[in-house]
């Protein structure tokens, strides 16, 4: 499999000290024996962190008191320091701003969706895989801020654990619950931090004591279309849901909206997504931000529909969210509805995203981690 090009080998500087979540099962056993503890302590620590959502060794009462300080220093360094939480949607959406060990800021968003006649309650966290983003999509606040650094596996996983803890403790409206879904649609291009992303995915889906034991189907990885990395992900046998941020069906416009398209064209991106679907048996999602008078023309709906009709794909239309200094607006509702109609007329499944967090700059494309 072709390696990712150097342009996507994001900076490694600033990564935090080793954390339990950075390590696989063998690595945890080795780490605790290095501390002079028996290997079985690795499973105990893992159960505390992943099952009980506890990250303070002083609260791990089955751990010898004399060992707790060493365990804290070597395996539980602080990764995320809370700067602030902001809430909207009657308290069912919460955006968290975190300060990392080096002062870098990142954001995650926790969302609770009520049960409907068609589906049970969902509690979803949108997490960041990088601080900032190097993809430079002009309608996205994160992309316009540039890339600061990759996040470590532990920093990614700790966002999910923090969200699961908040839900379990009833910190969002609706009372205590259980985190059900994770979407890698926060800050950064997940596949540009490939190795740490894959390690984080294992921590999310591996059963206790190795991980959180989440369903593979409940995890979505979004990408602007790094074709070699999509191919690598297909071979990992993780079978998570793939989402492709397409935003235009034609190369001329997509070269502008999603600059990576100058490297891998629409046909190559869709081909890689098709191969992922064939390998995993999972339908992929096409993310499409509706931008007024830019990509919302009827002929583009027809072209998108013709491209996707024979494919195992679903379109997720996203009303464009406002960002500071943006020159673009969301498509009018009637234009959006016509776009939907034309896709459906070609047999393409389509939904319009229920946008959450717009009022607190927590919606798609709005995360900028301002202190």
UniProtKB/TrEMBL annotation:
Its cofactor is [4Fe-4S] cluster. It is an enzyme of class 2 (transferase). The active site is at residues 107, 364. Its main location: cytoplasm. HAMAP family: RNA_methyltr_RlmN. Specifically methylates position 2 of adenine 2503 in 23S rRNA and position 2 of adenine 37 in tRNAs. This is Probable dual-specificity RNA methyltransferase RlmN. The gene is rlmN.
């Amino acid at each position: 499999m072709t390696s990712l090009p150097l342009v996507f080998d994001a900076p490694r500087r600033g990564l935090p000290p080793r954390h339990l979540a950075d390590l696989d099962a063998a690595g945890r056993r080795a780490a605790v024996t290095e501390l002079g503890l028996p290997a079985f302590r690795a499973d105990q620590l893992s159960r505390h962190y992943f099952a009980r959502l506890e990250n303070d060794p002083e609260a791990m009462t089955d751990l010898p008191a004399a060992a707790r300080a060493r365990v804290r220093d070597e395996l539980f360094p602080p990764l995320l320091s809370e700067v602030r939480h902001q809430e909207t949607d009657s308290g069912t959406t919460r955006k968290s701003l975190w300060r990392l060990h080096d002062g870098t800021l990142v954001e995650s968003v926790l969302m609770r969706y009520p049960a409907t006649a068609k589906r049970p309650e969902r509690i979803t966290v949108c997490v960041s895989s990088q601080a900032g983003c190097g993809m430079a999509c002009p309608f996205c606040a994160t992309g316009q801020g540039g890339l600061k650094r990759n996040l470590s596996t532990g920093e990614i996983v700790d966002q999910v654990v923090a969200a699961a803890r908040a839900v379990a403790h009833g910190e969002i409206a609706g009372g205590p619950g259980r985190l059900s879904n994770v979407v890698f649609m926060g800050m950064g291009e997940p596949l540009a931090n490939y190795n740490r992303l894959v390690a984080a995915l294992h921590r999310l889906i591996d059963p206790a004591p190795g991980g959180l034991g989440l369903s593979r189907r409940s995890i979505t990885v979004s990408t602007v279309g790094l074709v070699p990395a999509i191919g690598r992900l297909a071979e990992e046998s993780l079978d998570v849901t793939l989402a492709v941020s397409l935003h235009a069906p034609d190369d001329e416009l997509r070269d502008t909206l999603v600059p990576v398209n100058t490297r891998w064209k629409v046909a190559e991106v869709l081909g890689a997504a098709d191969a992922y679907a064939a390998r995993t048996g999972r339908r992929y999602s096409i993310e499409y931000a509706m931008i007024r008078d830019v990509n919302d023309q009827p002929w583009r709906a027809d072209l998108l529909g013709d491209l996707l009709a024979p494919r195992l794909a679903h379109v997720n239309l996203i009303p464009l969210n406002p960002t500071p200094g943006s020159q673009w607006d969301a498509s009018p509702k009637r234009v959006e509805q016509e776009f939907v109609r034309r896709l459906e007329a070609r047999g393409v499944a389509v939904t319009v995203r229920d946008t959450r967090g717009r009022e607190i700059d927590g919606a798609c494309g709005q995360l900028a981690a301002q202190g």
